[in-house]
Amino acid sequence: MAENTKIPYKIYLEENEMPKQWYNMRADMKNKPAPLLNPGTLQPMTAEELEHVFCDELVKQELDDETAYFDIPQEILDFYKMYRPSPLVRAYCLEKALDTPAKIYYKFEGNNTSGSHKLNSAIAQAYYAKKQGLKGVTTETGAGQWGTALSMACAYLGLDCNVYMVKCSYEQKPFRREVMHTYGANVTPSPSDTTNVGRQILKEFPGTTGSLGCAISEAVEAATTREGYRYVLGSVLSQVLLHQSVIGLEAKAAMDKYHITPDVIIGCAGGGSNLGGLIAPFMGEKLRGEKDYQFIAVEPASCPSLTRGKYAYDFCDTGKVCPLAKMYTLGSGFIPSANHAGGLRYHGMSSVLSQLYDDGLMEAVSVEQTSVFEAATRFARVEGILPAPESSHAIKVAIDEALKCKETGEEKTILFGLTGTGYFDMVAYEKFNNGEMTDYIPTDEDLEKGFAGLPKVD
Ligand SMILES: *Cc1c(COP(=O)(O)O)cnc(C)c1O
C-alpha cells in the first residue's frame, strides 16, 4: 500500500531514459512469421522485388527476423522528442469508479496533433524515404489517422505526400481531410478513377464506400508507376511493428522505474501495429522464458480477423497487387460494414501477431460497437480523455478484466494501450448518444464469401 501511494498519476520518462533502439520481437520468436510471397511465383519476395514498392532501408527491416535491436536514427529521436515520451497513466479515477482492486494503467498515444500512435512509424518511414533521395510517398488511410500522421511527417521533412482515403471516411470525416490538406498532402477519395485498379473496382462495385484493401491497391499502383515515389503503409507490416515498439519500450521503462509488473496487457487490433508495439518488450521476455504475461488483442465483432478468420496466405489488398502474407484473414474481398472504428476495418492482421496468436502466446476477443461506446463514455467521464473508437475497444476489455477482479478479489495489474483521441469521431458519438448506433456481426455465410476468395497456396 505504501508502495502504491508513491506511484504518480502520470509516469513520465526523462529525455535520457527514452529508448534509443527499436526492438524486433521476431528475433526471439521460435516460429518465425511466414515470409511474404510473390503472388505470381509463390516464392518468398526478394529484397530487390520489394525495393520497387518500399524504401531500401525499410525493406531490410521488413525482411530481418534475426536482429533484435535497431538503432533509432538521431533525426527520428529528435522528432520523437516533440511529442514523446507519451504518458503512462495510472487510472486511479477509473479504478475508483469501478470499485475494483485491480490496478489499471494506460499508455496514452493521443498526445500529438495527429491524435494517435501512427506518428511513431510515419516519421520513421518518411525519414528513410528522404534519406534515399525520393520525391515523395503514397499511402492509403482508413479513418484518416495514418494519413494525418504521414502528412505531418512529410511536411517536417519536405516530402510530397499522396493519400488515398477510403471514400466513406473522406465523406464522413471532412475535418481529417482538411488537416491533411493543411499539412500539404494531396488527398484522393478511394476507389478513384486516377488508377487502373480504382477504375476496375468502381466498375465491379459501383457505389462502394471503399475499403482499406482497395485504397492500398491504388496507393501501391500510384507509387510503382511514378519515378521517385515509394509506397508506405501505416500498419500490418513487420517494419511498422518494429517502429511502434517505442510504445512498449517506454511503457516498460516507466513501469520498471516503479517496480510495476503488469499481469494483463490489452490492446485494440486493426492491422496489429499498436498492439504489436505495446506488447513487444513484454512478449520478448515471454518468448525468452524470463516472465509470463497475458496478452489480449481486441477487435470489432464486425471485422473479426483473429477470432473468426482463417490462418492462411492472402492478398493484403483488394486489387491483389501486393505480396501475399500469411495471416489471420477474412479474405481480401471482405468489405466490413461501415462501423465507426475505421482504423480496425482491415481484413487481415500482422503476420507477427498472427503467428504469436497461432502459437497460443496471445489471446483475442471481439466486442460489439455499442458496448465499446459505453466503455468509451464511462472512461471519458472519469479519466477526462475523449478516446478514439478504436482505442475504446481496449478500454472495454480493460474494464471487463477489472470487473472480473472485483468478483474474484484479485489485485491484478492491467496495462492497456490508449491509442488516440476521438475528436474527429463525433458523428459516431452522436449516433451513440442518440441511441441510433447498431451492432453488426457478419454471419458465417458472409465470412464464407470472403474465404472463397483466398488464393490457393500449398
Ligand atoms: C489506426 C489506429 C488503430 C489500429 O491500428 P493498429 O495498426 O492495429 O494499431 C488503433 N487506434 C487508433 C487511434 C488508430 O488510429
Explain what this protein looks like in three dimensions.
- There is one protein chain.
- Strand 10, helix 13 and strand 11 form a beta-alpha-beta unit.
- The longest helix has 20 residues.
- Strands 1-4-5-15-10-11-14 form a 7-stranded mixed sheet, with helices on both faces.
- Helix content is 43%, strand content 16%.
- It has 19 helices and 15 strands.
- It starts with a helix and ends in a 6-residue tail after the last helix.
Number of discrete helical segments: 19
Number of strands: 15
| C-alpha Rg (nearest Å) | 20 Å
Strand order of the largest sheet: 1-4-5-15-10-11-14
| Overall SS class | alpha/beta
Distance between the termini: 57 Å
Query: Which small compounds were modeled alongside the protein?
Result: pyridoxal-5'-phosphate
Determine the strand fraction and express it as a percent band. Answer: 15-25%
The averaged pLDDT comes out at 95
The biggest sheet, with number of strands, parallel, antiparallel or mixed sense and barrel status, is: 7 strands, mixed
* Helicity range: 40-55%
Low-pLDDT parts are none
Q: What overall form do the CA principal axes indicate?
A: globular
